[in-house]
Amino acid sequence: QVQLVESGGGLVQAGGSLRLSCAASGSIVSINAMGWYRQAPGKQRELVATTTSGGSENYADSVKGRFTISRDNAKNTVYLQMDSLKPEDTAVYYCNSEGYSGYYYPAPFTAWGQGTLGTVSS
Questions:
Q1: Are the C-beta atoms of 39 and 92 separated by less than 8 Å?
Q2: Rounded CA gap, 5 and 94, in Å?
Q3: pLDDT tens digits for 47-60?
Q4: pLDDT tens figures, 72-106
């Protein structure tokens, strides 16, 4: 079992910043990718940013140049620095991780965090 715990959401004015954190724990053998998705009210969940163990990064067009994803492999933690926030960035942000877990019989896993709300006021 792999658990993801997110933190860092909150309320901020437009133009401000938030920093999200997500720590993975459990019988993790390896993590291939970690990332962030978001779901705004009345909308589908969408990709925000992802990073792989090889160091490649992918961002949604709507956040390029404003958001930065980073990762601490030693701590199995991923961060999302969100700058120049806009009201349309208001959403529940979910952490995602994919890799292998189970020390004796490793098997692939996909895990989601519980979500953290980020609200940007105009």
A1: yes
A2: 10
A3: 999 999 998 999 99
A4: 999 999 999 999 999 999 999 999 999 999 989 99
Question: Could you tell me which of 57, 95, 93, 66 has the C-alpha nearest to residue 78?
Answer: 95
DSSP classification of residue 69: E
Q: Where are the beta strands (DSSP E) in the chain?
A: 2-7, 10-13, 18-26, 28-39, 46-52, 57-59, 67-72, 77-82, 91-101, 107-112, 116-121
Bridge partners of 108, per DSSP, are 100
Instruction: Evaluate whether 87 touches 121 at the Cβ level (below 8 Å).
Output: yes
Tell me the HSE value of 104 on the side-chain side, using a 13 A CA sphere.
0
Q: What are the φ and ψ backbone dihedral angles of 16, each rounded to 5 degrees?
A: -85, -170
Residues 6+ apart with CB under 8 A from 52: 32, 33
Residue 9 has φ and ψ, to the nearest 5°, of: -70, 175
CA–CA dist 70, 112 (Å, integer): 18
